[in-house]
Amino acid sequence: MTNGTSRMTQAKIGELIHLSEPRIVFGYNQPMADPRDGITLFGPFSRDKIEGQINVGIIGPESPRRRLLTYLKTIHEPMFGVEPDVARPYFPGLEAAFNISVNFNNIKEIDVPDQDINKYIHYTDGHQRVYNLVNLYADRLLQYQREEEMLVPVWFVIIPESVYVHGRPKSKAAPSKTNVRIGLRKEDRSPKLPFLFEELNRLKDAYLYEVHFHNQLKAKLLTEKIVTQIVRESKIAYHELWTSASQIKAEEKFDTAKAWNISTSLYYKSGGLPWVLADARERVSYLGLVFKKIDTEETNRNACCAAQMFLNSGDGLVFRGNIGPWYNPETKQFHLSRDDALQLISKALETFKQKDHNHQYPEEVFIHARTYFDEDEWSGFSEAAKDKSRIIGIRITDQSGVKLYRDLSFPIPRGSALILDESKAFLWTRGYIPRIRTVLGLETPNPLSIEIARGIGDIKSVCRDIMSLTKLNYNSCLIADGLPVTLRFANSIGEILTAGPERENEILPFKHYI
Is residue 480 a contact partner of residue 196, using CB atoms and an 8 Å limit? Predict the structure, then answer.
């Protein structure tokens, strides 16, 4: 592998440096480091664009829907932790923090009968069990979207614990004397060999989907652009559902964090931007490559490819590429063909141009991946960007074998970077954070291995960008994440895109996948 040449501007080879906590911008263009501080003091970045009452929908069984309604009313009021904790600050309330409120006079509710859920959780075949559980929600949401006139920007999907427990890849049927053994043998599941009876053919549909409630539901709703927020009943009503005092006490510590997370996600999925990067460079785009094997067999090479593109505003878009033999079982790496690489980057560049106020291509595109880029792949990227943008390929991997210790009570601070050479560095995106007086991640944090694998760049600037991208997870309200958003959701997006039959999806905002 021939790496691109890079240049050093400030950092010296072998030098241990510290990058300050990146700032993000809130209402009135005020920068802060912690999103909870910024929103509490100044409100969200797009406070003047998204405000007032928000229409939402709730789908689920009657009892969980009632509990979710109660919870949504609760988060409109200030919420304090059971004990003072600077790492888990109080929540000022949805309206006070985000300048929005749920329109409780116009909530659309859709019932999912308990008896139907109780029927399907006893199906012993995992494909049939999850397929039917998902359809209880998906069919009703799709029907509403096609037939009703009232727009619902965000649907809360409230699931009882039984759906969560029995709707995952390795879950089993709920124990019962009446377990239902409906399914097909593996050799009979091919859609290319239809049965004479339509009832048996309908059973085959279940085997086209992944055995995962969350991913399958998101995949089925992409075509109609239905935005959802999936909520476990036990996480918002544990006082009513649990009897163990120790369990309840342990869960109470997260009450304010859950209120922050759900409120931030609701604001973002309603069309708002909670915050943006303070030091975002104009006309720079970050692209995270997503790969997911189609078949679990190691020797199968077919995989789905996609890309997450993040604009300098902070918002993201997801592009689906083609399915092809991208997986190499010998190297256990994914690589695109030249033509498919060209097609994927061309789509990203044209979309950036459409979103840009001046209708220009980005000056720089940083492609983030967990593997190196091979010659054919990079040739396609380069051809797509020729005379348009400068592209730089960045390889980012977890480096569990490297530790740094210091003779103090707390471990190495987040933002520490060890410059290895002109194109490589170890970057600690996890570590001690003075603002919250605790450690993000493990007690002895592991760094990310950062490498400029292709193109020309400054390793210190690359590390600084990656630090900034750890602050763009709008699905949570944290001071930072351990991974840049370009890779943080790569696995889950790939799983959603491959959770059902292959179909051509539009370029959709990031909010449809989280």
Answer: no
Q: Are 75 and 242 in contact (CB under 8 A)?
A: no
The whole-angstrom separation of Cα 401 and Cα 419 is 16
Kindly state the tokens that stand for 378.
Answer: 């990079």
SS3 at position 334: strand
Distance, in Å, from the CA atom of 52 to the CA atom of 99, rounded to the nearest integer, reads 6
Regarding the domain delimited by 16-22+279-512, which CATH topology (the fold level of the hierarchy) does it fall under? Nucleotidyltransferase; domain 5 (3.30.420)
The CA distance from 113 to 379, in Å, is 54
| Amino acid at the residue 388 | K
Residue ranges of the domains in the chain?
Answer: 16-22+279-512, 104-269
Copy the structure tokens of residue 382.
Answer: 């380069």
**What is the identity of the amino acid at 285?**
S
The Cα 98–Cα 92 span in angstroms is 9
Query: For each successive 10 residues of the chain (514 residues), what is the average pLDDT?
Result: 43 85 96 96 94 96 98 96 88 97 96 95 91 97 91 96 93 76 64 60 81 94 94 96 93 95 96 92 90 75 89 80 89 92 93 86 94 95 96 94 78 93 95 87 86 96 95 92 90 85 78 90
